[in-house]
Every structure is written in structure tokens, then in C-alpha cells.
Write a structure and sequence with these properties.
4 helices, alpha+beta, 141 residues, globular, Aspartate Aminotransferase, domain 1, six-stranded antiparallel beta sheet
Amino acid sequence: MSKTSKAIKSENKKVATKTRASGANDVDTYLAAVSEPARSTLKKVRSVIRSAVPAEATERISYGIPAFRYNGFLVGYAAFAKHCSFFPGSGSLLQDFTKQLKGVEVSTGTIRFPLDKPLPVALLKKLVKIRVEKNRAKKTR
């Protein structure tokens, strides 16, 4: 690899890192504006999502809510006046989890849960990992 190519590659990595960092900063700002107990709940959700996404995934505010992107929209989450929501980016995905989602409000493409009670870690990780695989498959087409 030529010296110029290495320099360009290095600069691209710096730009990508800055983009990821600024997107995460926007999410931090969003979370700081959310009142308790929803803030703590969303921080837990964010932490679980981060543990399940590839390193190349980015965070940003999308459509006014915190979201992760990996080869397109991956998942999002948000706080509202009376509940928190998780947006898996695929309504059809939720149809496969009706048993695990018993007790929470589900509509097409949205899971609503109490302000003070995040979704179970194992369920959240499973949903995120399925979305990662679906988006990864889009990339290889």
C-alpha cells in the first residue's frame, strides 16, 4: 500500500471515529434531557444494544430518537410521557416473539414498556442480533 493510500485510509478512520463520537454525543444529550426513571431505563437499554452490535455500528439521533445504524437503520429507542419504546426496525420480527413479549404493549414495529423497567436483557440482545444479521445480509447482496 502506498504512503498516500495509508494516509487516506488513516484520515477516513479519523472521520468515521469523529462521526461515531458526535452521534453518541447527540444521544448523550438526548438522554440527559430525559427525566428519571426513564433515563436510567434507556441507559440500560443502550448498554445492552451496544453489547450486541458490531463495532462498525454507529449511534445517532434519527427521527428525533436515539438509534443505531449498521448498513441502514438497525434499532431505536425512546422515552415518552408514560412509557419507553424500543423500535426493532421490523414489524415482522415481533411476530416471532409473541410469547416473550407477553405483558408488554406491542404494535407494528414498536415495543412499549414501563418507564422504570427495561426489557429483559436476553430478549433485547436477541432482537438486536437478529436485526444485525438481517442488515448484514443486505450488505452482501
